[in-house]
Design goal:
The protein is an alpha+beta fold and about 350 residues long. It has two domains: about 35-65 and about 170-349, Up-down Bundle (Multidrug efflux transporter AcrB transmembrane fold); about 70-165, Alpha-Beta Plaits (2-Layer Sandwich), CATH 3.30.70. It is about 65% helix and about 5% strand. It has eleven helices and four strands, in the order αααβαββααβααααα. The chain has helices spanning about 1-15, 40-60, 65-70, 85-95, 125-140, 150-155, 165-195, 200-220, 235-265, 270-300, 310-349, and strands at about 70-80, 100-105, 110-115, 160-165. Strands 2-3-1-4 form a four-stranded antiparallel sheet. It is elongated, with a radius of gyration of 26 Å. One of its GO terms (cellular component) is plasma membrane. One of its GO terms (biological process) is protein transport by the Sec complex. This is Protein-export membrane protein SecF. Its main location: membrane.
Length: about 350
């Protein structure tokens, strides 16, 4: 904003014309006349179907919890050759006495191994023991030379390691639920105070709850299907909170414009004011969402494998959040305001 202001002031001093659009975008979404409220029942059906599908997947498939939420040890290992995940998993099961989780992580010669072997043992030597067993299992799978020592393995082949105990993982789960619940409550109170109308707050909270459920449902449906990790970890919680913030920002812009139109045209039908207000925000909403989506898509395509799941959550959240601010938050607020007006009218009679 600071740099933009300097550039604008410099251009104004030079009496230069400041343009905010080009020939191809000058009329883009400028004179739309979409009847959003007439189509709200279709949006309710679509969103309802997506939410039912998401809840069904969460109940049947569940989520792929990362080490942050279930505890264990995770190792990222880069080998000299491409590996077969099933063979490595079988060899490690033989040394650990339990089946670890083995996934390709980035290139085909790079794997991530997660195990709960002796996770509750806090003795000093257990970490070295687990690394020795890990190295032995990789040698049994014929993906690591027999002459490699433990020091060479940890320095050259083992890229990273992480340990989360069961007590810490339980605390992280609890704190994540508290963080999201606290965000929903604060958002409702903020909308209530800003617009002095609980229907707007209800619409906003319904929209972000809708966004969260659908993002969770997509992660539940597609884990072990897409070729990158969709684990639920602390980065995912950060993505969800970011999505909530992005969605509520869009919703507040729409609500502000609705309030402005209601003050400018108090004698017109509320439905007409709401539709015109939403239409007037489309240009800003889609410009912001599209530019954000393009940046995230570039990070998703060219960024590292470690952040791909996080960015994927943001990509889905931007799309769903843009949709919900128009087709969920606004219609729900309108319907409850309409219902309250009918109840008030009946009481006066």
């Amino acid at each position: 904003m600071f740099l933009t202001r300097i550039i604008f002031e410099w251009k104004l001093k030079k009496s230069k014309t400041i343009l905010f659009s080009g020939k191809f975008t000058e009329e883009w979404l400028r004179h739309t006349n979409i009847k959003f409220l007439e189509k709200r029942k279709i949006a309710y059906i679509v969103s309802g179907a997506l939410i039912i599908l998401s809840i069904g997947s969460l109940a049947v498939r569940g989520l792929s919890y990362g080490i942050d939420f279930r505890g264990g040890r995770t190792y990222v290992v880069r080998l000299d050759q491409d590996v077969q995940v099933a063979e490595v998993q079988s060899a490690l099961t033989g040394v650990f006495g339990e089946m670890p989780e083995v996934k390709t992580f980035g290139a085909n010669n790079q794997i991530r191994i997660t195990t709960t072997y002796k996770i509750e043992d806090d003795s000093q030597d257990v970490d070295d023991e687990v690394e020795e067993l890990l190295m032995a299992g990789l040698k049994n799978a014929n993906v690591l030379d027999d002459g490699v020592s433990l020091d060479e393995f940890t320095d050259t082949y083992q890229l990273s390691s992480q340990k989360v105990g069961p007590t810490i993982s339980a605390d992280i789960r609890k704190d994540s639920v508290i963080a999201i619940s606290f965000a929903l409550i604060i958002i409702f109170l903020y909308i209530l105070v800003r617009f002095t109308n609980w229907q707007y707050g209800l619409g906003a909270v319904a929209a972000i709850a809708h966004d969260s459920l659908i993002v969770l449902g997509i992660f539940s449906l597609l884990y072990n299907v897409l070729p990158f990790s969709l684990e639920i970890d602390q980065a995912f919680i950060a993505a969800i909170l970011t999505v909530l913030g992005y969605s509520i920002n869009d919703t507040v812009v729409v609500f502000d414009r609705i309030r402005e139109y209601l003050k400018l045209h108090p004698k017109r039908k509320r439905e007409l004011n709401v539709d015109e207000a939403v239409n007037s925000t489309l240009r800003r909403t889609f410009s912001t969402s599209l530019s954000t989506f393009v940046v995230l898509l570039a990070i998703f395509m060219f960024g590292g494998a470690t952040i791909r799941g996080f960015v994927f959550a943001l990509l889905v959240g931007v799309v769903v959040g843009t949709y919900s601010s128009i087709f969920i938050a606004t219609p729900i607020a309108y319907d409850f305001q309409k219902r309250l007006a009918k109840v008030t009218a009946k009481r006066k009679k």
